[in-house]
Hints:
Blueprint: E1 3-9, E2 13-19, E3 25-32, E4 44-45, H1 47-65, E5 72-79, E6 84-88, E7 98-99, H2 107-115, H3 119-126, H4 135-145, H5 147-154, E8 158-162, H6 163-171, E9 178-180, H7 181-184, H8 199-205, E10 214-216, E11 224-225, E12 232-239, H9 240-247, E13 256-260, E14 264-271, E15 282-285, E16 295-301, H10 305-314, H11 324-329, E17 338-340, E18 358-360, H12 368-394, E19 404-407, H13 414-424, E20 428-430, H14 436-449, E21 461-463, H15 469-486
Parallel strand pairs: 1-5, 5-12, 9-10, 13-19, 19-20
Antiparallel strand pairs: 1-2, 2-3, 4-7, 6-8, 11-12, 13-14, 14-16, 15-16, 17-18, 20-21
This protein binds adenosine-5'-diphosphate (ADP) and SN-glycerol-3-phosphate.
Function: Key enzyme in the regulation of glycerol uptake and metabolism. Catalyzes the phosphorylation of glycerol to yield sn-glycerol 3-phosphate.
Catalytic activity: glycerol + ATP = sn-glycerol 3-phosphate + ADP + H(+)
Pathway: Polyol metabolism; glycerol degradation via glycerol kinase pathway; sn-glycerol 3-phosphate from glycerol: step 1/1
Amino acid sequence: MNAVLALDQGTTSSRALIFDGRGRVVAQSQQAFEQHFPAPGWVEHDPQALWATQFETARHALQASGFSSSHIAALGLTNQRETVVLWDRASGQALTRAVVWQDRRTADLCQRLRDEGHEEEVRQRTGLTLDPYFSATKIAWWLDRHPEWRSRAERGELAVGTVDTWLLWKLTEGRVHATDVTNASRTLLMNLQTGQWDVDLLSLFGIPPALLPEIHPSASDFGTTRLFGGSIRIGGVAGDQQAALFGQGCVAPGQAKNTYGTGCFMLMHTGAMALKSKHGLLTTRACQVDAQAQFALEGSVFMGGATVQWLRDGLKMFQSSSEVEALARSVPDSGGVVVVPAFTGLGAPYWNAEARGAILGLSRGSTQAHIARAALEAITYQCADVLQAMVQDASGSELQLSELRVDGGASANDALMQWQADVLGVPVLRPPLLESTALGAASLAARMAGVELQVEAQEGRHFRPSLSPNEIESRMTRWHDAVRRVL
Ligand SMILES: Nc1ncnc2c1ncn2[C@@H]1O[C@H](COP(=O)(O)OP(=O)(O)O)[C@@H](O)[C@H]1O
Ligand SMILES: O=P(O)(O)OC[C@H](O)CO
């Protein structure tokens, strides 16, 4: 059988999808889990909840499909990146909650390392910036506060990993402690060129090598799981944003996608070339399917769909995220209101961990609808800043961005996509299947199992830009003025 099971462990939910040989979804299951906010700026997940929801969704999807494990050619795993888990190798139990990518508790440590002059060296070696977003300072934070954990880590009794590594350990019942290059490239510990842990970086962050998993290409042998009745081969692992890039078919230099989930993550494939950004973007690994390393430029925006969650849960404007579209469309414009959703600082291209959110331009006539519209526009402006940086970085090279492919939960919002095309001045293409992340993981696994998915080309929806260059400029100027104020 050519069916493939994809597990997508995201920031707010775990999903499992079963694809047939043509890349069609034959069954799926999704479960949300609790978000923990123990202190301002802290975000944690219970590792056991990540595993339990992921395992349950896989079981449900298999049940719903009517397939048994013998029908599944391979399993592909994709995950929220940077989030780290620490566990005891003997018991397989986590020592503490996972520290999530959005968590800002290590802002001071990052600042200290910057003050000591390490920023440039870290950027050269990893392609990343010294920001609490990435895994290394989160691990250092644990070991600095728990000397006994450090001693146990040095003795090889503990294991650390991004979420893929934790789930692999669970799926293989402790037989495999591994990750792939895309996930490892988000830790601040992997040398971008060699694709291996960098001993100087391990020493800079004080991380014992015995804690870390092996790094493999994204399509490779990650062992087998026997938890679903038979034996299923795990053939693909990738961070969710790189998996989406692969799933959108962006495998050639210049092809780009933007995923609108909790955050927004725009990635442009740059082929075998690690393009260094001069405009605040990250250089990262794209999915690797053979011996050749692949690279991408990335702009990470922390508050994407999470801005809509805040309107829903924080301001109680509506019950379901999808209601934001009608509310925002009920006014012709934002009435001069600008929302800067810097709730957890600002990511690319600003990289400011201290900035906090603001609503500007309020008048007596401002309503919920104006704020909702301004919040959606803020998502599009943040992505426009990233695209602008990407175009500047790519100028002078052969990379040409002619359209932006989109996916993720919030890309279902037509208004958001139209306003996005408007401020980008570039067509936005939305495929019929928004689950590019899971499809990417499935394609990697299928490839490893030798059963390439024959995905049928299907017409997506195009959103074409409709604003004049002057209008784009005036909106972006107003946005940049607001950003300057929160910085
Ligand atoms: N119609 C919509 N308009 C705007 N935002 C939406 C819409 N539907 C979902 N969202 C937002 O998209 C996010 C969920 O997308 P998803 O891809 O499932 O995220 P993740 O993988 O980060 O968990 C949530 O933040 C939600 O508020
Ligand atoms: O879980 P998502 O889809 O919000 O993605 C999270 C990113 O991987 C964080 O870098």
